[in-house]
Here is the input.
Amino acid sequence: MILYWLTCVTQPARKLAWIGTLMRSTSSRPTWGAGYLFSGDNDAVVMRNSALINLNVLEACRVSGVGRVFFSSSACVYPMCNQQDPDNPTCAEAAAYPAEPDSEYGWEKLFAERLYLTYARNHGLVCRIARYHNIFGPEGTWQGGREKAPAAICRKVSMTTDGGDIEVWGDGLQTRSFLHVDECVAGTLRLIRSDCQTPLNIGSEELISINDLVALVARIAGKQISIRHISGPTGVRGRTSDNRLIREMLGWAPSAPLHKGLAVTYRWIEGQVGRF
Here is the structure.
């Protein structure tokens, strides 16, 4: 949907019919969390659907004469070997190569980055690429197995009575950073309007373990919550955004603390739970 909206604000209406139709047909794709991406059971459909979306969108842009296009890549492109230390992951943009993503999803995103850049070189498209780091917020997927960690934990805490417990995959010591959607949009707009031709991280540098994320959500909810660690896909041991390049290129980086966005998200998910 971001691609379609940005196209609308930069292109004459007569060039949008094909792009609009294409994006309406693909914009219903749900978000993908670790349980869906890292089990291995969905690799073929993930790679096929993602590749087809990007191939068709780019060719439609070329044929329709669209001048500027945005691609949302992912922090999943970064090598697994750089993300084994939960306290010191290496996710600077230049560290994407030599390539060794930990999932087929990451490999497809890396391929797609190169695809967009080749269309820029060969067909004159102005392409801007962001590597998103765990975007969350209200109105996102919060149930069904494809939700990301903040939404899943908010849902579990909301559905658990004070003094109860929730399940967490692995030992909970794996770390991540999470970026609220408001700052994601702000960063995306800055990037699309910039002259930056290389992929940029858009994410928070506030690293937190999954165990601590549960504790933070529990405090927001005003509950005492215990954790039961169970087996399940956990992804890499540590991942956070390295924002040195975005500060240099855009003169900006996300700065809002995690707890503020998480509080808003928890209240929204709590409301959704109450409706079911």
Observations:
- Residues 2-271 form a domain with the Rossmann fold fold (CATH 3.40.50.720).
- Confidence is low (pLDDT under 50) at residues 1-30.
- Strands lie at 68-74, 126-132, 135-136, 165-169, 175-176, 179-180, 200-202, 208-209, 226-230.
- The first strand starts at residue 68 and ends at 74.
